[in-house]
Write a structure and sequence with these properties.
The complex is a heterodimer of chains A (about 230) and B (about 250).
Chain A: E1 2-12, E2 18-29, E3 34-38, H1 45-52, E4 60-65, E5 68-69, H2 75-84, E6 86-89, H3 101-106, H4 115-128, H5 144-156, E7 162-166, H6 174-191, E8 194-199, E9 210-215, E10 218-221
Parallel strand pairs in A: 3-8, 3-9, 6-7, 7-8
Antiparallel strand pairs in A: 1-2, 1-4, 4-5, 9-10
Chain B: E1 4-15, E2 19-31, E3 36-40, H1 47-54, E4 62-67, E5 70-71, H2 77-86, E6 88-91, H3 102-107, H4 111-114, H5 116-129, H6 145-157, E7 163-167, H7 175-192, E8 195-200, E9 211-216, E10 219-223
Parallel strand pairs in B: 3-8, 3-9, 6-7, 7-8
Antiparallel strand pairs in B: 1-2, 1-4, 4-5, 9-10
Helix pairs in contact in B: 5-6, 6-7
The chains are: A alpha/beta (about 230), B alpha/beta (about 250).
């Protein structure tokens, strides 16, 4: 479903040097597979996700999603790809204050379906995420873990082929983080969506079919006990 | 009648089992239609909590929160939700979760309540009123910080609220941009008759507000404005200072 070939993105470091944010990364993620990328802050994880989401253009290399080379798409097609084929989950909860859980989760679907039909589509997903009793609640009445589950429902509402999860449990305690990752991995496997999870939490890697590590922009073998030194000291 | 009225509002949060952190200590504040009140405080002094209390999203330990004279906590949950969805606008510097042109971004929250064509009409009008019509087909990533602030205001006013709550919108802006944004909020409030409660971390962002209060140690103290405090004391080319041409800011009359 997702294939990265020698993907590279450099930034000017200010002293004439180049910061190799993503440095020749090649990776495949199959439909229904969850692959974790483990790495410390500054290792290039978020840049890599932005390249896959076509929010950044690579300096070289290719991103192929479901057989299409993403970097060759027009700006409109890239936007359409992000909206319809990609689910993006991070730590930010952009929930509408006055809207219910059901409305907040259905919001992405409002673009293509009427509000009632959108809610009918998203309701089973919310129930599956354990929010069946909270459909009529507002975001301010939810716990952080519940808010994250609403964001997951919104991200999965259009049935994306690929899900990118950027530290999705970063603002949750360990127990709630595990609950969220359990549900995310189960639902994506059931739906055949490929998931790329980036994390600096070693425990989150337990939910993955495969784990790689990212260090200074390069993909390296993951060793469960490895502790990364801060960038530039290793 | 005030749009928003807080009387003796106290709020605290538990920390661990034994401790509580006092956030708001007997806060009293009234805001009328067309008025702008800036609440100036450093970080973690309870600014956002104050806005959440004003919106009925946080129930105070003590005191009363009234919207147009009615006690918010006497409302049913359903009525409080409707109030939040229809009559209170939130303006906050949040990166939108969905990647779409800004016109759709402003219109989308109104789809369910107003229908698509009405939502787009309101969004178009709101972007025009804040002077961000050129951002309509732009994506978030291509906008400058001050354009993002304008779009956030457009989203807040698109539902034609009676109360606009603005949470540290100018934090990432320069002084001149901050002044333009706060002047715009003041003008919109006056012209459209909604009340604005705005939290700011920088005294430079209070210049165009009709009233300024400081929040420290949970206490809200309103400070009378001197003529020199109206508008920014630094001249910016092209920026008209309050009182120069605008009779609303002429305190001598």
């Amino acid at each position: 479903m997702l294939e990265l070939r020698e993907l590279t993105k450099h930034y000017p470091a200010g002293d004439g040097e180049l910061l190799r944010a993503v440095d020749g990364v090649s990776l495949k993620v199959a439909a229904g597979e969850l692959v974790a990328l483990y790495g410390p802050s500054g290792s290039g994880k978020t840049t890599l996700l932005m390249l896959i989401a076509a929010l950044l253009q690579p300096d070289s290399g290719t991103v192929i999603v479901d057989g299409r080379e993403i970097s060759r798409l027009s700006e409109d097609d890239r936007a359409r790809y992000r909206l319809r084929e990609l689910g993006y989950i991070d730590q930010a909860f952009d929930l509408l204050p006055g809207a219910t859980v059901l409305q907040n989760a259905a919001m992405k679907l409002w673009l293509t379906a009427d509000a009632r039909r959108a809610e009918r589509i998203v309701e089973p997903l919310l129930v599956r995420l354990g929010l069946g009793e909270r459909l009529a609640h507002r975001p301010d009445q939810l716990s952080m873990g519940e808010r994250q589950r609403v964001m997951i429902a919104r991200a999965l509402s259009m049935g994306p082929k690929l899900v990118l999860a950027d530290e999705p449990t970063g603002s949750l305690d360990t127990r709630r983080g595990h609950e969220v990752l359990t549900l995310l991995s189960e639902i994506c496997r059931e739906r055949g969506a490929a998931v790329l999870l980036v994390t600096h939490d070693p425990q989150a890697t337990a939910f993955a079919d495969r784990v790689h590590a990212l260090r200074d922009g390069r993909l390296v073998d993951y060793e469960p006990d490895q502790v990364f030194a801060p960038l530039g000291e290793g | 009648m005030s749009v928003l009225s807080l009387t003796g509002v106290c709020l605290s949060f538990p920390r661990g089992r034994r401790h509580v952190i006092p956030v708001l200590a007997s806060v009293t504040l009234q805001i009328d239609a067309g008025e702008t009140v800036s609440v100036l405080a450093q970080r973690a002094q309870g600014k956002t909590s104050l806005l959440r209390v004003a919106a009925g999203m946080e129930r105070p330990d003590r005191g009363q929160v009234c919207f147009e004279g009615e006690d918010l906590w006497g409302f049913s949950e359903r009525r409080r939700s409707r109030l939040l969805g229809d009559q209170i606008g939130w303006v906050r510097p949040v990166v939108p979760d969905l990647d779409m042109p800004m016109l759709t971004n402003v219109a989308l929250p109104l789809f369910a309540t107003h229908g698509k064509s009405e939502a787009y009409a309101r969004a178009t009008g709101a972007l025009e009123r804040v002077g961000a019509q050129e951002c309509a087909q732009q994506f978030w990533g291509s906008l400058a910080d001050w354009e993002r602030a304008l779009v956030a205001i457009a989203q807040g006013i698109a539902r034609e609220p009676k109360l606009l709550l603005v949470d540290d919108l100018t934090l990432s802006l320069g002084l001149g941009e901050t002044e333009e944004i706060t002047r715009l909020l003041d003008t919109l409030a006056t012209e459209q008759g909604f009340a604005v409660l705005m939290s700011v971390s920088d005294a430079g962002a209070t210049g165009w507000s009709g009233r300024v209060a400081t929040l420290a140690g949970g206490e809200l103290l309103e400070t009378p404005k001197l003529p020199a405090q109206q508008g920014n004391i630094i001249d910016f080319p092209g920026v008209v200072k309050p009182g120069a041409n605008d009779p609303r800011h002429d305190i001598s009359t």
